[in-house]
Q: What sequence folds into this?
């Protein structure tokens, strides 16, 4: 923090000294018991909470004026920043509605184009088994499980690759021939998965 200007520090000292002098004077008058009825009423009014509150606030402002101004300025900047963020959110919200409408129009156009083209997707032919021999099928399943691109594979997929559409049949072959070599479990999707140990 930068040092206070010389004039301001003297002003603060003078204000504090004046406040202390007033309080000492009032206490002295009351302690002597020489105060007249008018002086006692005046002292009573000066010691009432509105006057003391005002004097206290003035002393605090004189002592902490720069800090108070900095705090209020910083709070104003934060509030202005929040207002700007609120405006940006409102702009994004209105843009989202426009973008959704544009995307819906594109989807409708694609659906219409697909209907107009009357595309027919041929059904895939069922896979042809690689062999009738279970040991050859097991070897093909093991090659599928050993694919370095995957840690776990679904039995459905590796069965399809070797020409077996029944997942239970794939599991039976792996259990029969892969004792200790293949580990099976359930995936997040609930499908049976396997990997090579």
A:
């Amino acid at each position: 923090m930068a040092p206070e200007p010389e004039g301001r520090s003297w002003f603060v000292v003078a204000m504090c000294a004046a406040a202390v002098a007033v309080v000492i004077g009032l206490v002295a008058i009351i302690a002597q018991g020489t105060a007249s009825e008018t002086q006692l009423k005046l002292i009573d009014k000066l010691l009432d909470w509105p006057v003391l509150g005002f004097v206290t606030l003035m002393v605090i402002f004189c002592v902490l004026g720069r800090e108070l101004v900095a705090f209020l300025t910083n709070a104003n900047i934060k509030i202005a920043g929040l207002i700007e963020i609120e405006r940006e959110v409102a702009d994004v919200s209105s843009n989202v509605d426009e973008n959704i409408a544009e995307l819906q129009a594109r989807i409708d156009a694609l659906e219409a184009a697909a209907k107009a083209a009357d595309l027919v997707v041929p059904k895939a032919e069922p896979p042809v088994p690689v062999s009738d021999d279970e040991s050859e099928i097991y070897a093909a399943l093991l090659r599928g499980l050993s694919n370095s691109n995957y840690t776990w594979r679904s039995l459905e997929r590796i069965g399809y690759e070797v020409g077996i559409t029944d997942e239970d049949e794939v599991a039976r072959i792996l259990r029969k021939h892969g004792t200790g070599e293949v580990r099976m479990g359930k995936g997040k999707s609930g499908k049976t998965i396997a990997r090579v140990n």
User: Anything to note?
Assistant: The chain has a mean pLDDT of 77. The domain at 134-196 is CATH 1.10.10.10 (Arc Repressor Mutant, subunit A). Helices lie at 6-32, 37-46, 49-117, 134-145, 155-162, 167-177.
